[in-house]
Amino acid sequence: MVERRHVRVTAAVVLLVCAGLVGGAYATRSTPTVTDAADGDGRVPAANGTTVVATDSNTWLGKAADGPRANAELVAFDASGSVVYYDDSHTRYWDVDPVEGTDATVEYLYADHLTPEACGGESVCTENGIERVNLTTGTVEPVYSRVTPGKHSTRWHDADRVTNDSYVVADIAADRVFVVNTTTELVTWSWDAQSAFDPATTGGPYPGDWTHLNDVELLSNGLVQASLRNHDRVVYLDRESGLVAERTLGNGSHEIIYEQHNPDYIENAGGDDAVLVADSENNRLVEYRRSGGTWTRSWVWQDDQLQWPRDADRLPNGHTLVTDSNGNRVFELDETGDVVWSVPIAFPYEAERLGTGDESHGGQPAHELSLENRTASTGGNADDGSASAILPGPMVNAVYYVLPQWMSVPTLAVACLGSLVALVWGALELRWLPYSVTVSNPVSIRRRP
């Protein structure tokens, strides 16, 4: 009897402590706001200072009622971090690009999950589209859209303008890149990843999420750059001959890039070009220099907070604009690797600084700027005991993806401990009952001897 009392007291104390810690985390939760995280003197309002951010969602419909990381948003901040435009009408927002020749107009990719009735009887389908919005007037203009079956591996993440009525699209649903005339809605060119890669030996699960083709960029030399996330490769396509195999960055090795997002090609008038990559599952930013027909790593950056970055743009002033998805922030690095401007925002996907060109257009590569490398280990944070230091990056990122914004990995561990103690205590109480249940026909209950 004494032993049972001790177990009950111990279990009750543990549960109370766990409940207090989890409840305290919830009560003191901080929703990412639109205030500037940098001091006034440290702010760097490049060009007109407007930063446009598109955010992802970790829920089905992406609604604000489900929490900050659930709410998909397209938001524009001025240099001080104040909101100058806001919209959350879509389920997901993806790539955002400035419209050339305008001061405050951008185009963006969106995805809306539709009801079964709107899917023609299918249980799940998604409308993928391109829209254009004037951030000053709020006027939204539809450009092009298509409905695809399913959701996760069918949501288009990127499209790049070719001409006024022609766009190159990263078709994640069909593992292809295509060019479409948005006036006639005719596809004028396409490249199928199966024409160059074997589904049995490359990529993710086939035919489910084989390539996860999440980014496309039209280069000035006419080539199309495409990101095959689940192949750990950035490829280059000639619209006449197809894959330019010798230019491919990555070979499936996670040491080079690991399920990357938003690679940005940096043209260098002084010599070698480069590609700046959000190396997502490695939780770092990495840049590769194209020299002598090969890719050589020329820069790497991370800190102890960087968690699943999904965009990085080199700005004309030599700084780097970074989207830190699981770090819930968009920030700017200077040439020494210090954060000089930052806004907290839940689950950002992509960011653009207006007035600096599309993506990394106008920025210089790291080897020309002599950017300093920085990693968590050189910063003294590799052994800080955080989840990122203990667990593999993909495992931590998967946990962060589904967690509510207020719950950290340590808080999740406390909640799991409390749940385990409650289950064990409940099982013991059942075992200690003075009755036993015998499952037979009929069911009988008798007092234990």
Can you put this structure into words, describing what you see?
With 449 residues, the chain is α+β, with helices and mostly antiparallel strands. It has helices at 2-27, 366-369, 387-390, 393-402, 409-432; strands at 51-55, 74-77, 83-87, 92-98, 105-114, 125-134, 140-149, 158-163, 166-171, 176-181, 186-192, 213-218, 224-228, 233-238, 242-243, 261-266, 274-279, 284-291, 294-301, 309-314, 320-324, 329-333, 339-344, 348-353, 435-438, 444-447. The strands form seven sheets. The protein has a four-stranded antiparallel β-sheet with strand order 3-2-1-24, with no helix packed on it. Strands 4-5-6-7 form a four-stranded antiparallel β-sheet, with no helix packed on it. It has a four-stranded antiparallel β-sheet with strand order 8-9-10-11, with no helix packed on it. Helix 1 runs antiparallel to helix 5 (409-432).
